[in-house]
């Protein structure tokens, strides 16, 4: 039996694609570094004290008075000109709120890193995963896992631990809704960040989640770790995961707008934000437990946080059917043998084979792309 290696089988055109993509990725990162070095860095403000009012403090932190009141756990309509001391705020509470707001100041460079990871993933899925002219017999070298694992590791290290928790798709989604109740002063900037993530999800089906989101990548790595291959993987039915995720999203809106709970501005995702891991600051036991449970559950089921909780996971599921690039199954060729369904870690392949109008989330993980015995699947 002949041994094929994926790289050695790439055609000369594909090698040009590979090297051009690497050069494009380097250029994007260089531009990102340049833009980041030119950007005005927010100063770390040390001298807050409880004799200052919300009106003095909030603009220095880039939030509205309501936003700062919410951080201090005060009603949104609390008097904004009164000293914080008179509102019953202690120095520790003030420091905690300031720290939390400052922790959300992300690096602009991270947007460039997201673009680079998505670009690399897209070129791999569309043009490089399968060597030109390779036969069905060579299918085992199609879409090798190593490049994907490499992207996941880069995402966790660079888009996660090196560049910190913000920006990320989850916060990008939630902040738009927080703007609607006046918690942030710059709705246009927050809308632009949200649209940036949506645009990336529209380039390739959830490709930002599958290839670039650091917490998505961490879960994917835990799911893939070969030392735990013996643990039987379980698929949680999409109807259940999506019902929980959408209910949580609806509950978030009801709390945020004060329709239930009576505390306008309360954000339930705040206590479930696993991206805190990348600042090495969990803020609360609940967040620590969210991270721990999500990662432990990832050993047995695919991306539990994405499928059950993440608001961007929910929104990007709605838009993924409009993605320019996505998994497509040729119904003329498909014999419904079930090979792709077995390979897929979610219900997505099953729903695509069965031509469901609203299939389950597809994270562009590429597992199904080399599984079809009659070559009916394309990205
Ligand atoms: S769904 Fe998962 S991968 Fe996508 S933004 Fe949320 S945590 Fe990240
Ligand atoms: S295996 Fe499933 S999730 Fe992965 S690309 Fe194929 S359909 Fe999408």
Secondary structure layout:
Blueprint: H1 6-9, H2 12-38, H3 54-61, H4 65-71, H5 91-103, H6 109-128, H7 145-162, H8 169-180, H9 187-203, H10 207-212, H11 214-224, H12 238-256, H13 285-297, H14 304-308, H15 311-319, E1 328-329, H16 339-343, H17 348-353, E2 377-378
Antiparallel strand pairs: 1-2
This protein binds iron/sulfur cluster (2 copies).
Residues 327, 343-344, 346, 348-349, 362-368 line the site of one iron/sulfur cluster.
Compose a concise summary of this entry:
The protein folds into two domains: 6-40 and 107-378, no CATH class; 54-103, no CATH class.
Description:
With 379 residues, the chain is mostly helical. Helices cover 53% and strands 1% of the residues. The chain is built from 17 helices and two strands. It has helices at 6-9, 12-38, 54-61, 65-71, 91-103, 109-128, 145-162, 169-180, 187-203, 207-212, 214-224, 238-256, 285-297, 304-308, 311-319, 339-343, 348-353, and strands at residues 328-329, 377-378. It has a two-stranded antiparallel ribbon. Helix 8 (169-180) crosses helix 15. The model has no long low-confidence stretch (mean pLDDT 92). The chain binds iron/sulfur cluster (SF4) (2 copies). One iron/sulfur cluster (SF4) binds at residues 169-170, 209, 213, 215-216, 303, 305-306, 310, 312-313.
